[in-house]
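Justification of computing resources. Each target in the renewal requires a structure prediction run like the one illustrated here; the chain below, 324 residues long, is used simply to show the kind of job we budget for.
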Amino acid sequence: MIDKSNITTEMIEQARHADLAEYFKRNGYEVEQRRNELHIKGYGGLYINTDTNEWYCFSQADKRGGRNAVNCLTNILGMDFKTAVSELVGYSYAHPVSYNRTTYTVPEKKELAIPERADNMRKVFAYLCQTRKIDGSIVSDLAHNGLLYQDKRGNAVFLHIDGNGEVVGAELQGTNTYKRFKGVAEGTADSVFSVKVGTPNKAYIFESAIDLLSFRQLASPNRLQDSLLVSMAGLKPTAITALAEQGLTLYACVDNDIAGTRFIADNSLIPCNKVLSDNGVKDFNELLQKTICTRELLQPQPTEQLTAENRKATTPPHSHKGRR
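Resulting structure tokens:
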């Protein structure tokens, strides 16, 4: 990525015409190629037409999409303009484009496809509890309430449930520490994963279910009371529209980065992530792991306790004889 302070007009023009498909492929995004369409998973139905370099996002149809690659990164990924330009420079789009073609056809909305359930949750429990340090009782509660299960590939599946109790989407989290994966089930649009505490009058909004569960473990009962914890599986303004319409006070617990800061400002949310910058971490799971690690370091080790007990046992009793 180039130095943002040295951006020129030529760089801006190059970034606007950057090869979006190549950018998403090279930067570790979860993608799926179908003929001339590249689906960027986890962003509410974001598609790139690899013939025309046009983009479109189902969950943000008001943005209309288009051929401007910079707009895609600012509108959908939440980057500021200079960051988007610096990210895209170097991804030249070499395919010939005829601007006399028929207008780009919006892809058909995909039918919801929820992953097949595995017959156990060993990998999910091991990953969430041991690797991510989430308390086992929290994971058990989710599974018991039908909000979490393990699919045949070993992924954690966090179900999106609507007001009628119907499954309308799902957030997916890989459980392989060495091969990272996260996304949403095919057909998931602007629904969210949520956990209700009491009768909600406020909502805490997160970028992932794991951050949501980490916050739940860290926060005091008083803070959690009468709240709705929501994971957008990314930064998706349309995912929180319904929450605002319900009159809930919206607190943003998004990542401590440029995209998160932009998301808070663009959507007039109340920031609730200062604790992240104060502790030098990016998200609430990092904060949870740091908190637990610090707590473990401060606890006396078994050998230290044993040494103290031995010392106490071998110390001779004080003499009560009077002085001569």
